[in-house]
Amino acid sequence: MRLVLTEEQQALRAAVRDLLTDRAASPQVRAAMESETGIDRDLWTRLGRDLDVLGLVVPEEYGGAGAGHVERAVVQEELGRALAPTPFLGSAVLATDALLALDDEEARRELLPRLVSGELIATVAVAEPGTPWGPGATTATASGDGWTLDGTKTPVVAGDLADVLLVVATTPDGPAWFRVDAADVERTTLTTLDPTRRLAKVVLRGTPARRLESADPAGALERVADLATIALAAEQLGGLQRVLEMATDYAKVRVQFGRAIGSYQAVKHGLADVHSDWELGLSALRYAAWAADEAPDEVPVAAALVATFFGPAYFKAAEACVQYHGGIGYTWEHDAHLYYKRAKSTELLFGAPGRDRARLADRLGV
Amino acid sequence: MTAATTIATGSPPDLDAFREQARAWLREHAPAPSPVTDIEAARAFQAALYDAGFAGITWPQDVGGRGLSTAYQQAFSDEEAEYELPTYPFTIGMGMCGPTVNDLGTPEQRTRYLPRLLRGEDIWCQLFSEPGAGSDVASLQTRAVLDGDSWVVDGQKVWTTNAQWADFGALLARTDPDRPKHSGLTMFVVDMHAPGVTVRPLKDMSGRAPFNEIYFDSVRIPADAVIGEVNGGWHAAVTMLGHERVSIGSRRRPKTNPLDFTAIAALAQRLGVSGEPATRERLAELYARERVLELFNVRLRQEAAAGIAPGARGSVAKLAGSMLARLAVDTVGEIAGPEIVAWDPEDTTGAAVALGINSTPSSSIAGGTNEIQRGIIGERVLGLPKEPSVDKGVPFRELKVGTQK
C-alpha cells in the first residue's frame, strides 16, 4: 500500500487550494449558503472546466482524467476544508461512481462526459427514512417499454439541483437502478442542520424511469456506498485539519490572564489530541483511498473503518474549535459553527456512529 | 557472508539480496522464542549476529559497523519481526548509548567501547531518571564532584532497564549546581562493576521486576570517561533521547498481545457474548483505533523512506499507543466482566489478561508521559507557546526539585 502522496498529487492539491482560497473564502461560502441554489455555479464550472477535477475517477474514454480515488480524495479534502459550496458529493462522487459500478454503457457514454465537464449535475437517490442505503419502500413497476417509480427518497444529496437522478427502487426481482429526469419528480429543498450542504426530498409518483443495466445491482449499491463513505471521510479529514488550524492559530494570539491561552495545558493538550486524530485519520484515509484504487477486496473494511473513525473525530475537533474560541466561537459571524454543523451532519448523513461500528463489526466477521 | 567480506568489497550489497541473506540466516539461527534467562547464550547469539553482518548495519565501518543506509536496517528489522530474538539485553546499548558515544565520544572512546558493544561483549544501560527527576529529568540530583583527576559520584537512579546485566552505564550527573539546571550536567561512562555501585531490582505494579534502581556511593570515575563536554551533559542527553525515539519507534509490538482486537474477539467468542451488540461495537472501536495506529506507523515508515523526517510526530504514535492500550483495558472488561476477576490457577488466558490490565499504566508513563507527549505535540508540532517557566536561568541549588513535603 502507498500512504504518501506523489509530487503530482501534491501539485493537484495546491491547484485546488489556490482556486478555493480565491473563490471559496468565508464570504463566498456564506453568500452561496444563503443563495437560492446553495451552490456557487461559477466555482463549479471552474472546478470542471479549468481544473478538470470532476472526473478524476472516470476513465479517459468517458472524458475523465483516468486518475483515481487517491486523487479524488485530495480534492475532497480541499473541498471539505473550505466548505466549498458545490454538488461534488452528489455528482462527482455518488452519481459518477454509480454509473461506473453499473453496466449501462449507453448511460455512461451519454452522462459521464457531461458530469465531468460540470455542465450536467446528477445524484443518487437511495436514502429513505431509516435506511440511508435503501433500497427502502420505493417500488418500480414495468410499464410498456419502461418503468414507473413510486415512493419518497430523502435525504437526497444535491437532490434539488440535479438534472438527472439515479434512483434505487425495488422491482419484483429485487433492487434495481433507474434513471429519472428531474423534470418528472417533485422536489422539496429540506431545511438542514448543515447550511452549507443542500439536501432534498424527492417524491416519485408514477414517475417514468429507464432501468439501468447491471449484472449485480445490490453489489453496485454496496460499492457506491463504500466509495461515498471514503470520499466523505476525505472531506471530514480536510475539515478536521481546518478547525485544528483555526483553533491553534487563535490559541496563539488570544491572551487571557496575561498569557496566550495556547500556553495553558488545558488548551494545548486538547489541541494535541485533535492533532493526533488528524495524523491518524490522514493515514487511514490514504489507505482507504489506495484500497479503492488498488485493493477492491479491502474496500468494505476500509470504508467501515474510516466511517467509524472520522464521524466522532471530526465532530470532536469541531466542538473543540468552538470551545477554544470561547464566546466569539459561538457567534454566527465566526466560521466555527459552520464546521460544527458540517461535522455533525456528516457524521450522521449515511448512518450514525453506532451503526458505523456495527457495520465494521459485520465486515470483520465479529 | 560476513561483515568483513562485505567491507572488503566496498560497494553496498543489493538490498533484495541482503534481505534474502537475512531471511536465510534467521531461519537457520534464530532460537525458539523465550525470555532471556541465560545471558551468556544471549551474548553468544549477539556475537553470531554480528559475525553474520546483521549487527551495527548502519554503524560506521571504523568501529566495526557496516556503514549501510537505514533501508538495510529496515529490511533486517522486517525480517527479524518474524522472530523473537534474544537481543533484548543489548537494545539500550545498540539503540541509545552506542549511537551517542559514536556521535559525541572521543576517538579513544569510540574504539574502546563500540566494537565490544556490537559483539555483545559489553552490555549497556542508561542512567537518567531519578526518584526526584522523571518528566523533568534535567532537575536530577545525582552529583559528580571532581577530586584530583577523577570524579566522585553519589546519588540514585531508577527505572533502569537491563542494569542487572550491564557492564557500562551512560550516566547523567550534576557537576555544577551553581549553574541553571540544564547547563550543570555532564554525561559519563560508568563501569557498573565499580566499587560503590549497587543494582537492585525494582518491582513494578504488575508484580514483575523488569527495571532496576541503582545506588552510587562514592563511585570513582576517571576523567576520560566524560562523554562530550563537562557541563555539556544536556546536549548529550538530548542526543541520546533522539536515538531513543528512533529506537522505540522502530521497535515492533510483541506478536501476541492478550489485549488486542484479535485476542479479545476470541475471548468474546469463548465467553459466548460475541453476538451482543455492545460487544460488537466495542470490538469494532478497538479494531478501528488499532488499525489506524498501525496505518499511521506504516505511513511514518514510508515517509522516512522518502526522506521526510518523523520529527516530533513520534509523540503522536506514543500517545496513540497508550490511549489504545487504555481502550483495550476498557474493552476487555466490558466484554469479559467477572470472568477476568478470578480464574483457575492453570488458566493462562486469565493471567495474561490480568497482566495486560496491570501493566497498561506503564504505556502512558514510561518513555515520556502522555502529558509530556501532548506538550511536545502542542509546542513542537503545533507551535503553541510554552508555559512561563519559573526555573529558567535560576542556579540549580536555588530550585525546588523532586517531591516536596
UniProtKB/TrEMBL annotation, chain B:
Entry's Gene Ontology molecular function annotations: flavin adenine dinucleotide binding; oxidoreductase activity, acting on the CH-CH group of donors
This protein's UniProt keywords: FAD, Flavoprotein, Oxidoreductase
Residue ranges of every copy of the Acyl-CoA dehydrogenase/oxidase C-terminal domain listed in the record: 231-382
Residue ranges annotated for the Acyl-CoA dehydrogenase/oxidase N-terminal domain, each copy included: 14-121
InterPro entries: Acyl-CoA_Oxase/DH_mid-dom, Acyl-CoA_Oxase/DH_mid-dom_sf, AcylCo_DH-like_C, AcylCo_DH/oxidase_C, AcylCoA_DH/ox_N, AcylCoA_DH/ox_N_sf, AcylCoA_DH/oxidase_NM_dom_sf, Mycobact_Acyl-CoA_DH
GO cellular component terms attached to this protein's record: plasma membrane
Keyword set includes Oxidoreductase: yes
Cofactors: FAD
Domain Acyl-CoA oxidase/dehydrogenase middle intervals: 125-219
Similarity comment: family membership: Belongs to the acyl-CoA dehydrogenase family.
Descriptive protein name: Acyl-CoA dehydrogenase
Natural source organism: Pseudonocardia halophobica
